[in-house]
């Protein structure tokens, strides 16, 4: 049974059984109360003796109640006592699944998948109308015998045609990280609103993980209609809307979530995604407030620095945007890519387009320095960075005769011209370089050099007028 030792840890996730759902609220309250007593005492038999005696006075002939008591001891890791009540439950309710399921769960939490499956199977034999045994058996066996697991669920469908066995199969595969297979089963469910909340939530989470964001949003909306108080449906709705760039909707769903979720359940990622929604909706100051909450809760969330930088860029507060992007790069260290440095260049370029003419070149010089860093640090991006530097220097001084961009166009040619596998983009950029240099040399009365580059330009672009004019001199 060793091959399935590690497969059963999640078997107890399916804690809502058909039998437990059938219990009266009064009985459930009694079970909850005795569970609190037993777990508070860490399963100590002497400490719980009086409370258990009182509980048994009312429920010693009730297999559901006895299984609930045993489950309390199981939660406290007193497996001897848990087994005792599992046996009592089976004795007074031979044809009730509760005692068999509890016994299977006791083995499951001890990583004994073989015995767990045996007891789950017995539950299906003695109480064929209870779905829990089928589902838990299938989950235990899914990885080593997927066909047998599905056959068990199909058997469940035969005895309970109305039971959503497709959803049970989806949940089973999802819990074992077979997400694509899980979705295939989930998508067969005829009525998603009939699913238990935790199954529906798993369905939409699976869709989200597979980047099926429209599907996840639809499922989240169905969940909100089914159970408006289950806040996590609203959370997944705004997470999905963010991915779909439906930011105004995302903000509305996020507000719904925060209005309903308990403060202790809110995580840094919840504020992060709310901040993203607000930023996308153009509500920048509110977005900053949410990002600050993330930093207060978890200062390791370095991506917040990048998000804040983007906001200050939108607000045209360039110094702050540059400061935060630089902090982000410093924080991630060797994980920084050339794109992270290019963001620095983008901020300077945006600044150059929104300052007085006398300040433009200062901003462009900052962008040039960022691309110089890229060329130095990332050999795979060097050609790209050098070409960008050439264009920036031409912007800084558009007088071609002065040749401000000349060294960078020449460097790009040296890097690319002799490549055997030049791309269409390479050829287009080479054309720009040849054109610039041809004009530079003709304006500086160096006709022979001008013709040299004009010839190269004509080879790439036979109809280029500049090349024709220079070669005709």
Number of helices: 26
The amount of helix comes to over 70%
SSE-based structural type: mainly alpha
Could you give the order of the helices and strands?
A: HHHHHHHHHHHHHHHHHHHHHHHHHH
Strand composition percent: under 5%
The overall average pLDDT, rounded, is: 91
Gross morphology is: elongated
Low-pLDDT stretches are 1-23
Number of strands: 0
Distance between the amino and carboxyl termini: 89 Å
**Rg (C-alpha, Å):** 34 Å
The main β sheet shows up as: none
Give the arrangement of secondary structure elements.
Layout: H1 18-21, H2 25-40, H3 45-59, H4 63-75, H5 79-92, H6 97-109, H7 113-126, H8 131-141, H9 146-159, H10 165-175, H11 179-186, H12 197-209, H13 213-226, H14 231-243, H15 247-260, H16 268-280, H17 284-297, H18 303-314, H19 318-332, H20 338-352, H21 357-377, H22 382-396, H23 406-416, H24 424-443, H25 447-460, H26 465-471
Helix pairs in contact: 2-3, 2-4, 4-5, 4-6, 5-6, 6-7, 7-8, 8-9, 8-10, 9-10, 10-11, 10-12, 11-12, 12-13, 12-14, 13-14, 14-15, 14-16, 15-16, 16-17, 17-18, 18-19, 19-20, 20-21, 21-22, 22-23, 23-24, 24-25, 25-26
